[in-house]
Every structure is written in C-alpha cells, then in structure tokens.
Amino acid sequence: MALFETHYYSYTLGSNITLNVIIPTPKSGEDYHMMGTEAPYLYKEGIPVLYLLHGANGDAFSWMRYSSIERYAQDHGLAVVMCSAENSFYLDLPYGLKYKTFFTEELPHFICSLFPVTKEREKTYVAGLSMGGFGAWYLALSRPELYSKAASLSGALDIVLLGESRKAEGHSNDRWNHVFGDYEEGTTPPYDLFLLTDQAKAEGRPLPKLFQACGTEDFLYENNQSARRKMEERGMDLLYEEGPGAHTWEFWDTWIRRVLDWIDEA
Which of 3, 30, 63, 216 has the most CB atoms around its CB within 10 Å? Predict the structure, then answer.
C-alpha cells in the first residue's frame, strides 16, 4: 500500500488544501514474508477509486486516524481519496466556498491526472459518515454521471427533517443558515436528496446504486428511516442494513468493511 499526503492550491476554493490518497500495491498487504520481487504494477487500466468523506468537525485524516481504511483499501485493491471539507455538508455554500464544485469537478480531474486511477463511472464510488453520508448521496445524486455507487453510514440524509427537528428543539439557526441558506417554509431546498432524485429520474440520467447503514442506537436512526422510506417510494436501487451501534467510530470502522464488500459486488 502506498500513501500520499498531498498539498496543493485549489483554484475552486482559493486556498491550499490537504488530501490523503491511498494507492494499493500488488500482492503486498502487511505479510512482508510473503512478498515477492516480481509483482507487476498493472495500473494501465486504472484502479477503482473511492472518494471517502469525513463527518462534521472532521478532516482529511479522520478515516486514517480512527479506522483501518488503509488496510481495507489494500485488501480490496481500491484507491481511496480523503480530503477536508470543513463543516460544509459538501455544498456550494451560499455565502462561502464552493465545495460541491471542488469535489465533483476540480478534485477528480486532479486525482486522475496524478494517480493511476480509473476515469470510468462504473469504477468510481463515493461514501461517507454522518455529514459525509449526506455528502456522498448529495454528490452522487446531483452529479450521477460521475459515480456508480454511493454509500452512507449514519448519514444526516433527510436534511429538511433534521432542520425542522433542530428548530423544534430551539437550536440557533446561525450556523445552519451559513451552510444551507435561508429557504421559505413549505418549500423544498435544492440540495434535498429526494428532490435531486426526482429531477435525475425526470431527466433520464443514470442513477447510482445506494447503500445505507445506521446503528439502531444512533441519534440519526429515525432520520435514516425517513430517508429509507422516501428512497424506496421512488424505486431507488437501495440496499439498507442496520445493526447495534451508535454514532461512533466503532460502528463506522465495522461498516466501512461492509461498504467495500458491496462495492466489489456486481
């Protein structure tokens, strides 16, 4: 496994950014006594690539610090790209930086230009946890021509319902409005995942396969049930799974392995 910590200037974000890229190496793993001297680096066809998104208050190092994603990526022969997005929910912020544009336009171009990863939609995937779970579905549904599969772990998926819950609980809207903007009550905001699904279906665009998992003790469990119902009503190709667990790295480290197995499936 090769790990690259990369720093470069993003013209979309107007600042220097940090990202981590895992590139699997052939027949190595961690069993060094099994390593040969003639393993070929067959990178010509392009390695399948997963854009792996962090949650709120996380960064490009979160998955590497708290999970064994490096080992899992090596085992699956999968390139993994991790990049910081602050607490943007991976949106083009109404009064700030354009993270959706960065993740769907600039970043894939940069990665495909420097690393031996595929440019094929069928071998390009996106996944994330919590805020990144929303981000994974949001990027895939707003730009479905880019990703064949999108996975959410403990995702904040029904964002309208979450906003209503916050309001009912008396939370301040200052930080929320900075990310999502202020939209009229009773209207559907443009980043709503179900609106994006309806629009993509109406336009005849290719829709990604979706994976969703949430712990039964997670505070976003009911939010995930709402999202599941709405996606199933729309006939989406959705695999839903759940198990014991809360909003913790113990859950996510376990379930990212299930995501990688799902990615490998036809």
Answer: 63
Please choose, from the candidates 132, 126, 127, 107, the residue with its C-alpha nearest in 3D space to the C-alpha of residue 57.
Answer: 132
Q: Which residue has the tokens 């109404």?
A: 94
Start-to-end CA span in the chain (Å):
25
Q: Which domains does the chain have, with CATH numbers?
A: 2-264 (3.40.50.1820)
For residues 256 and 157, give the distance between their C-alpha atoms in angstroms, rounded to a whole number: 17
What the block records as the tokens of 135 is 């981000």
Identity of residue 80: V
Higher pLDDT, 160 or 40: 160
Minimal CA–CA distance to 211: which of 162, 249, 155, 145? 155
Instruction: Categorize the per-residue pLDDT at 82 as very low, low, confident or very high, splitting at 50, 70 and 90.
Output: very high
| Residue carrying structure tokens 């995702």 | 155
Distance CA 239, CA 208 (A): 12
Task: Return contacts of 190-193, CB within 8 angstroms, 24+ apart.
Answer: 191/89, 191/91, 191/138, 191/142, 191/159, 192/159, 192/160, 193/134, 193/137, 193/138, 193/141, 193/157, 193/158, 193/159, 193/227, 193/231
Residue reference for tokens 């997005």: 85
Work out whether strand 149-153 and strand 79-83 pair parallel, antiparallel, or are unpaired: unpaired
- For residue 224, what are its two tokens? 């995930």
Sheet holding 238-243, edge to edge: 2-10, 15-23, 79-83, 49-53, 124-129, 149-153, 209-215, 238-243
- Is pTM beyond 0.90? Reply is yes
How far does Cα 222 stand from its chain's mean position?
20
Residue where the block lists tokens 């505070």: 219
